[in-house]
Amino acid sequence: MANTTSSTIDPREAAHFGAMAADWWDPNGSSAMLHKLNPVRLRYVRDAIDRHWLADESSFRPLEGKRALDVGCGAGLLTEPLARLGATATGLDAAEENIAVARTHAAGQGLLIDYQATPVEHIDASGFDLITSMEVVEHVTDPAQFIKALAAKLAPGGLLIMSTPNRTPLSRLAMIGIGESIGGIPKGTHDWGKFLTPEELSRMVTDAGLEVTDVTGLSFDPRKGFVLSSNKAINYLLTARHPAG
User: Fold this and answer.
1) pLDDT over 90 percentage in the chain
2) Residue 113 burial (CB < 10 Å; 0-12/13-18/19+)?
């Protein structure tokens, strides 16, 4: 029987990102900015994992025995590291092109990842210990419903980690004025009006039944590149937990 649950995927957004699939893994290609962001995001994810599950910080596989879902995975820049950290990993993306590249790349790395070109609202699986969704919520048609769908897939006691641009004059300048001109972000990637402030996103996450435990800024330091900081003016990461369990 076909799944009739509505989806928050925007077909235009899916087509935009699908067009970048071929060079997604090229650090100098159309996804260059994501390659620069990924190490910082991974550091944040690892720290959140260690705090939440009291993991050994020296362990190479702190997600051993846990299930992870990466929503809006693109070609797997974050999904692959989650699998390497020991998780049984699933990656979802709206673009078939991205999923095809993700599957090929993971196979080349010897990683078993369940990649699906499926909206999160349509997957039957649930009870994921960790759900990540990086730079995705600003591209969906209904952010509140999207977050409720993420929350519905989270296991009791599970962890949700998101990142998204803030809606400030500085983010408009940095991500659209500069980023989409010379900074390695393809033109047309962002609609500043769809950016969410930390307060707006936190309220949506809370309304979905989760408890926000951390909001950390992601800023740019001319000397170090992208860094985690208290400055949330351009971009930020949010961690929330399922209160049950």
Assistant:
1) 66
2) buried
